[in-house]
User: Which sequence fits this backbone?
DNA sequence: GATCTAACATACAGTCTGTATGTCACGGGA
DNA sequence: TCCCGTGACATACAGACTGTATGTTAGATC
């Protein structure tokens, strides 16, 4: 028998837990969210939570993977569509991708869960593993292409990818917390673009 | 009467609490450190803690201020000495200051407390206030000087300072978590320097 | 020297996490 | 079909931790 109905139910409760936790973690942060709130919103009991996840941090890891995966997917499709419409050179793709990231990751979920609570809850190790999986990989690939194309200067890829990712993270946070988000978005985008332009082979 | 002995004792217990908390927060993180551990290391009781600080977060705020203040002071004296020895142009000062930051803030205290736990514990608001006070002010001042000197392109100062600070933070963290810290430090420094150089008036 | 207050210590209540135990439905084999 | 084993939960409990309320003492003030 293929996928039994029981298995569907199991997956459904797990998804409900992740979805409920995602809402609450994004809204109030990890520390301020009690497990009772989560399970009540998911309409199960704490037993289900501790059956599916080892502890609260394990649930957080699943939530963050979900959020990061969604963002990465949105970014990739965004980029693919753009690349089809006008096949750019790698450098323009990179440039456009940076601006897309700023638009995709303005959602509060991403900021609070991935950028703020992520490092503190999971510790540098587990957090980097997730970020590496969803973000740095893609970014490093783009950078390598632009370098081998001779469009940007040769630099160690790993630290460059990490630092540029941090730049984008902060640009996203800066935009989110500004009094005037539109102006902030424009200015942050301008700065990011200028930094990137500065890396071009002079 | 000037400073009474009693006042000295009061200040001493407060300092002892901050010092003990700083060690433990840096070692295990904010969430994993119990107040009982803190007061026992400071050789007082929890009563003293809740007399001097409104709650655990308030103590954390004091600890972070202490750590950030120390780093800022070290950075400034570092820079002053360098500026006296060879009076550079603003751009060289900026460049040198960035590298100094990477060396000063490699201490684990700073990383865990200010960069990792800070945003999560205090929330974006309170954290930015502290960072603004200790870091961005100095950085923004340097940037303004370099701009008015025509050495780097005109850009909105606030987002530029925020993004460059994030770049330095990540460079510091990248160095700390690398398997080979020496190589990482050199490469991160190289990337930072290259990014900064890219901002120069072309 | 009496009193008043600040600086603590102690005791307590509430909350939260994680675990141990119990129950029930579902699936498979005789 | 009946029985039984296992997985998917629910429930109950123990431990820990934070914050508060109350008590006590040493020093400042008059």
Assistant:
């Amino acid at each position: 028998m293929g996928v039994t109905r029981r298995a569907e139910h199991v997956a459904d409760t797990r998804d409900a837990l992740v979805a409920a936790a995602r809402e609450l973690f994004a809204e109030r942060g990890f520390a301020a969210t009690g497990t009772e709130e989560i399970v009540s919103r998911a309409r199960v009991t704490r037993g289900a939570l501790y059956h599916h996840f080892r502890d609260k941090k394990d649930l957080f890891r699943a939530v963050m993977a979900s959020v990061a995966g969604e963002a990465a997917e949105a970014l990739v499709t965004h980029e693919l569509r753009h690349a089809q419409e006008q096949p750019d050179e790698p450098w323009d793709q990179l440039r456009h991708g940076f601006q897309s990231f700023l638009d995709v990751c303005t959602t509060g979920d991403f900021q609070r869960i991935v950028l703020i609570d992520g490092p503190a809850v999971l510790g540098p190790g587990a957090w980097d593993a997730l970020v590496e999986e969803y973000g740095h990989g893609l970014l490093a690939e783009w950078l390598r292409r632009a370098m081998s194309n001779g469009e940007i200067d040769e630099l160690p890829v790993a630290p460059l990818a990490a630092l540029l990712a941090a730049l984008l993270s902060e640009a996203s946070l800066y935009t989110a917390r500004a009094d005037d988000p539109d102006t902030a978005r424009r200015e942050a985008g301008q700065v990011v673009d200028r930094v990137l332009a500065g890396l071009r082979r002079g």
About this structure: Residues 4-6, 34-36, 46, 50, 55-56 of chain B lie near DNA strand D (CB under 10 Å from a C1').
